[in-house]
Amino acid sequence: MQKSLKRMLRVGMSGVLAIAMLAGSTGLAAAQAVQTIHFTGYFDKQLRAQMAVTADSFPVVNVRLVKQNEPDMVYYDVGTSILISKDEVLTNYHVVQSYAELSDGDEGTLTVASPGSLGQPVKAKIIKTDPVTDMALLKLDKEIDAKPVTFTNARDNQVVYTIGFPKNPAGDLVILDEDFPSTYNTIAKSRVFSSQASDVPGKKGIGSIVKSMAQGNSGGPVLDQNNRVIGMMTFVYGGRTYYITSKTLQSFIKDSTTPAKKQVAVAGKVSN
Asked: How many domains, the chain?
């Protein structure tokens, strides 16, 4: 059925060709093969093998959308995510926005898959969003066999790595209900330009790296040399890639797990 339908890819710094939003052993399942990763920058053999294991903690996100008034067209949004627990991932809101704002009569699915297990996609649901800061928390139907991340703060000028799912050199994106391309994701080396950026009007809680990353990296991590997350890529501005800081990400996660205070009636008033 899918093969007979027309396909439209929505590419942001999330991956519809029509829209550009940019928007050692672990005891876990086998990592993706090194040759399925496109590396940019210098990575020696040992680091490539290490990053292949690390990459499993950053699943691809697919939104598949069929609109009621275009039944012969399939729209896709492709992005990246960060595994914060075995069954939860963080990504950018704009990656899943078309699914979150699904119109009556339209049909959509939301799936994620670890790059070492692309043949085993997992359905997900959105449990919390913040469109202003461009964050979304997704709950998975079952656990992913990869290591959840740890967070740390950034420093100006430090060496960092990014992992995401932009188009590969052949121009292909990872679509989970089609044949997979020869390389799945891209791992790049970069450097922090500003750990607390203030040069983008109206944006707070962000930092920047020196490279302008390709579309498809939305929701992907910025990692230090110990593979700790210092931020999540969100947009490109002025030739640099901006990320949501680890502090902002952790606050969002904490707020999503904090139960709301029970309202108590006191002397005719309601107080928290």
From this structure: 1
